Amino acid sequence: MSVTDTPSSIAVGEVPDGPIQAAEEDRLSAFFASYGRHLALLQAIVATCGSLFMSEALGWPPCVLCWYQRILMYPLVALILIGILRRDRGLHLYVLPLSLSGACISLYHYLLVKTDWLPPPPCVDGIPCTVDYLDILGFINVPFMALTAFLIISFLMGATAVSIGARTEATPSLRDRQAIAAYAIIVLVAAAFIGWGIIV
C-alpha cells in the first residue's frame, strides 16, 4: 500500500483551523487583559478634559443633563486609575454602573436634541437641555461624543473582565476596603459637582 493510501496522510501545507482560531482568540484576550483598563482610563481622561475645554475654554456652559453626565464621567478617571494601580480584578464592578448609566443619559440627551420623540425635562433655570453647540455631519454633537465615550469605556471594561476571567468571589462587599474607597470617591465627587452646579 502506498503512502498516499494511508488514512493518516495529510495534504502538504494544510493547517487545521482550530488551533489558528484559538491562537487569535488568545492574543485578543491577552490584549484586553493587558491594555483594556489603560485604554478605558485614556478614554475617561480625554472625555473629562474635553468637557472642561468646552466649558472653560470655548465658553459653552453645560446644561443640567451635561452636569449629570459629568458627575458620572469624572469619577471614572480616579476609579480606573486606582483599580489599575491596585490590580483590582473587580474593577469592572465599580466602573460599569457609572459608564452604562452615563450612556443612558447621553442617549436621552442626544435624542432630546436631535428628535422630538421624547418629552423635554422639566424647565430649570440656566441653559436649556436642547441647546446644540456642535453639529458635525448632521449627527455628531456633544451628547453623541459623550455617548461614544461611555460606550467605549463600557466595552473595554466588559472585555477586560471577560479576558481576565473575573470570578464571583472577586465581587466586592461593603466591608471590603477597596469597595469602601471606591464608593467614597463616587459619593464625594458626585456631591462636589452637584454642589458646584447648585452654586453656579
TrEMBL record:
Domain of life: Bacteria
Segments traversing the membrane: 39-61, 67-85, 92-111, 144-166, 178-199
Subcellular location: Membrane
Gene3D superfamilies: DsbB-like (1.20.1550.10)
Gene Ontology CC terms: membrane
Membrane topology: Multi-pass membrane protein
GO process terms (BP): protein folding
InterPro entries, sorted: DiS_bond_form_DsbB/BdbC, Disulphide_bond_form_BdbC, DsbB-like_sf
Molecular function via GO: protein-disulfide reductase activity
Assigned keywords, A-Z: Chaperone, Disulfide bond, Electron transport, Membrane, Oxidoreductase, Redox-active center, Transmembrane, Transmembrane helix, Transport
Family: Belongs to the DsbB family. BdbC subfamily.
PANTHER family registered for this protein in UniProt: DISULFIDE FORMATION PROTEIN-RELATED (PTHR43469), SPBETA PROPHAGE-DERIVED DISULFIDE BOND FORMATION PROTEIN B (PTHR43469:SF1)
Name assigned to this protein: Disulphide bond formation protein DsbB
